[in-house]
Amino acid sequence: MSARHPRAPARPRMVVGISGASGFVYGVRLLELLRALEVETHLVVTRSALLTMAHETPYKLADVIDRATHYHRADDMAAGIASGSFRALGMIVAPCSMKSLAEIATGVSSTLLTRAADVTLKERRPLVLMARETPFTLAHLRNMQAVTEMGAIVAPPVPAFYARPNTLDDMIDHTLGRVLDLFGLDAGTALRWGEEALPALVRTPPTLDKETT
Fold it and tell me: Which amino acid positions bind FMN, per UniProt (predicted)?
């Protein structure tokens, strides 16, 4: 009897992790951009990230889940994204806390987020960590070196002022546009040096001005 092989995903998939570092809005906006690009998203949010969400944004978890195609609890280690057999373009952790970075650097998987990141590395898929902290300690820098040597890309959300952003939303969109470039996805939100600016994807709804109930 022949083995059964699952069909390839109908559309590209991306695993999105949101950890407890400052910058929760990066993860929310990333989900919006990936939806506009018709990329299937698999979201995992850590417990610490929920605290950051409450401090930094008007969102509730239900608002964030609504922007994802699929949501997985951070303690659900039996989720599909915990297995290397789960096919995806890769994974983005936006933002990536120093705790999550340390777990990924040392192969410790205490949450589904870091397990999914570990799987992404072992399957040799792109893993982008939007590491958020400043200033960095030597431990932080060594962990960044370690994950880079393993194949991950450390992409701190550093603003590009040559784009002359008018709002915080502009800065967020440009940064995420450059992150998505790493996967060959053009969100239309990055101003490219030496090129004419293109109309960005319509922001629906605004990242920071949305009122929630």
Answer: 20-22, 46, 97-100, 132
